[in-house]
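Board notes, transcribed. Complex of a protein with zinc ion.
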Amino acid sequence: MNIVRIYELFPTEADCIDHLEKARWHGKPTCPYCQSQNTTAAPKEQRHHCNNCNTAFSVTIQTIFHHTHLPLQKWFLAVSLMLNAKKGLSARQLSRDLQVNKDTAWRICMKIREAMSQYQQRELLTGIVEIDEAYIGGKPRKGSPSDTHHKRGRGTDKAPVVGMVERGGNVKAKVMKKGDLNAKKLSALVRANVDIKTATLMTDEYTGYVHLKRLAEHHTINHKVWYVDGNIHTNSIESFWAILKRGIVGQFHKVSLKHLPKYIDEFCYRYNNRKANGGVLFDATIQKGLGLWQ
Ligand SMILES: [Zn+2]
């Protein structure tokens, strides 16, 4: 779904509201306060009146789209732009694209990230699962190589992120606390996210991963030697880190630790839906924004 389609499909506020109402209520407006469906439409005010508890409500109430004075078309455009921005979309860029101020643009981005974060990749990863860690956030230091990945973050103010990717499938990435990249914590993380009964794990030789052999079949890669030994490589997770780093370092300059998990979730969401049809993904994301997480 690109922005031209958004203009074609949702030219007016009423079209956007109609779309949200269909997605949220399937033609039966439901009072968000008492769940009654005994309601009367007040189309002029783009609201509904609940005849049971005598309150008025609109379709955006209790959703990420609840933002005064901002046309819904701008929200739809923002969703479309974020889904299509492979390297991420900065608030500064969105502010220019939507002609809104930077604070509003930032708030919209964070709200849409919130919707994407609600998406929980519930199924365990299986098959060949590549596991690796990266240090993300903060500005790269002058004179340091752009890829600090194998420095293990010593002396940096970056946050460790552990990524697990099913080859050809989905990725999961978790922001960890500094000092938590030990064998115990990493094994627990893998147990929680990977189907260890069937999966084959691929990591580098970092000592934090040595105990993974006790959980599942585990192969290690020696990065000092430049070769790819058939199936034994971590190219999939490396390419996810490349997208994430270009996005976060290039677009966002400095992401605070507090918000980092949401940014990571956004990149995971795009990666895991990379093969999805644009229109289907747009609708699914709008539904997540409405609080319909399934
Ligand atoms: Zn009610």
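The first strand starts at residue 39 and ends at 42. The pocket of zinc ion is lined by residues 31, 33-34, 36, 50, 52-53, 55 (CB under 6 Å).
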